[in-house]
Amino acid sequence: MTADVRRRLRPPLTEGYVGNAIILTVAVGKMAEVVDDIPAARIRAAIMKLNDDYIGSALDFLEMQEDQRRLSRSAGNFSATDLSVTSWMQLPFYDVDFGLGPEEYIRAAAFYYARQCCVMKTPDGGAKVGISLETEYMEGFKELFHGLVPAQETVHALANGS
Fold it and tell me: 79-162 adopts what CATH topology?
């Protein structure tokens, strides 16, 4: 997962900072645990370890690398069992004013590999999820998703901003 560290740095980045300030963290679980119960506590624990010391250590590690590009996430080094989930729920996309009126649609520009997921808020307070999967896994994903959240409840939840 990528986590926003703007407020975790000491001193924190300024309120108006618009550059990337993200760091990777990992929550590990067996597939059966993920299917039976989404391990929110593990995700929360992975994010909570991102304190100023941890971030400083990660930055030191990056500075020591001769070729930082080899560390990037790509199809060549992204395990077939991995799922990358990024939350943009806290990013103020709908507060940006370019002088052309309100935004019509905002989303991640691209997914560069399979099993990447991005969660964003909608203008009405709901959430939208973009996910990229290999074609052969789409039907199973739809069945699992609608088994967890039936279609009518999904529409109702989105309409009510849940």
Answer: Chloramphenicol Acetyltransferase (3.30.559)
Mean pLDDT by groups of 10 residues along the chain of 162 residues? 82 81 79 67 84 90 82 60 79 80 81 84 86 87 77 49 44
100 to each of 96, 103, 125, how far by Cα in Å?
A: 10, 8, 22
Other residues' Cβ atoms within 10 Å of the Cβ of residue 35: 12
- Give the C-alpha separation, 104 to 100, whole Å: 10
Instruction: Classify 84 as helix, strand or coil.
Output: strand
CB 1 within 8 A of CB 27: yes
* Cα separations in angstroms, 125 against 2, 9, 120, 158, 159: 22, 28, 10, 9, 9
Q: Where in the chain is the domain with CATH 3.30.559.10?
A: 79-162
Residue written as token pair 């971030």:
55
At residue 134, the 3 state secondary structure works out as coil
Nearest 5 degrees, angle CA 43-CA 48-CA 54? Answer: 120
CA 62 to chain centre: 21
Reading the block at residue 22, the tokens are 């993200």
Distance of CA 128 to the CA centre of its chain: 12
